Amino acid sequence: MVFNMFRRAAPAVPEKKASATGPVIAWQGSGRVVWSPRDTVSLTKSGFAGNPVGFRAVKLIAEAAAALPLVCQDSERRYEQHPLIDLIRRPNAAQGRAELFEALYGQLLLSGNGYIEAVGGEMGAPSELHVLRSDRMNLVPGADGWPVAYEYAVGGRKHRFDMTTGLPPICHIKTFHPQDDHYGLSPMQAAATAIDVHNSASRWSKSLLDNAARPSGAIVYRGTDGQGSMSEEQYMRLQDEMASYHQGAANAGRPMLLEGGLDWKPMGFSPSDMEFQKTKEAAAREIATAFGVPPMLLGIPGDATYSNYQEANRAFYRLTVLPLATKVAAAIADFVSLYMGEHVALKPDLDQVPALSEEREAQWSRVAGADFLTDAEKRALLGLPKLAEDA
Questions:
Q1: How many CB atoms lie within 10 A of CB 181?
Q2: SS3 4
Q3: Under a CB-based contact definition with an 8 Å cutoff, are residues 258 and 264 in contact?
Q4: How confident is the model over 205-255, as pLDDT tens digits?
Q5: Distance (Å, rounded) from C-alpha 282 to C-alpha 288?
Q6: What is the greatest pairwise CA distance in the chain?
Q7: Using CA atoms, how far apart are residues 141 and 380, in angstroms rounded to an integer?
Q8: Residues with Cβ < 8 Å from 236, sequence gap 6 or more?
Q9: Phi-psi category of residue 120: left, alpha or beta, with phi > 0 → left and psi -120 to 50 → alpha
Q10: Residue 103 and residue 91: Cα distance in Å, rounded?
Q11: Under a CB-based contact definition with an 8 Å cutoff, are residues 387 and 379 in contact?
């Protein structure tokens, strides 16, 4: 017992805290690539590159969010100059701030996932940030359910980003998915059915235009002997003439010469044809709803949800752009803070958003007129850091 008193106590092993469900989540895929359950390439091709409503919705959100002014601050001060500000202003040699954020927001909207690669950073903040394509990235979970690596595949070549040694090289930002532990759910996937309906309606309209924007009619044959059937030779000749002289956009409006016994019966639009355009507009509104864009901003007719364009634009920023930009800015700030060794916050500057000018002016007036609040409390309500004398 005496000798035990002079022994050094063994260093305590730091306690590792983790969710009890992590090993259960990773049981089937530990150490192996977990493939994304959706076909991002097909959704992007049909819903973005091949659909004007989806294209405009993604561009509208991505460009509006990328143009938001950002402020960098901590609990004590708001920085005018900071390594994080310099990194965001020029993230890499090929992209500026707007290009990087637009690409990142676009990936999030199209796939539900955004990936940022940090380059450098051994002595502080990363020297560069790069947005990686979501359709090329695959996650490799570990035994505890957390990602141990990310695999980036281009063609037949792969690069593996190790997440277990040192600082993480990848920042994975994802949207909420109720049925997937590793990947996010994209608005494009939620709007997939409406996109198919809208694309089918567009193809149907295109076929009408190719046929002079009129539905096809019928040629009725009545023979001189009272018989209603044509010979094989007559039928083939009529088919060839119709294909050569009266089909296609180049022959639109060309008069038709009918011989004896042939009568042209044009067919008008049926009630279902008349409702077809309304179905297309309804599908367009569903696509806009999935992305959180007021249909009025996309020029979709028949929408009277908002009393005016200004109100729709304010709702668009308040309900769609700001939540997305706030989430992404906070994730980037936390990621870069790991490299710098200090925590700073990055968030949109609401006072510089024109769409919210009336709201902010009213809030500033209310806070400024509250005599029962101190200056420090007013600054806290407005999201401003403390002054030096209040710290």
A1: 15
A2: helix
A3: yes
A4: 777 667 655 555 666 666 666 566 667 777 777 777 777 766 666 656 566
A5: 10
A6: 130
A7: 40
A8: none
A9: left
A10: 12
A11: yes
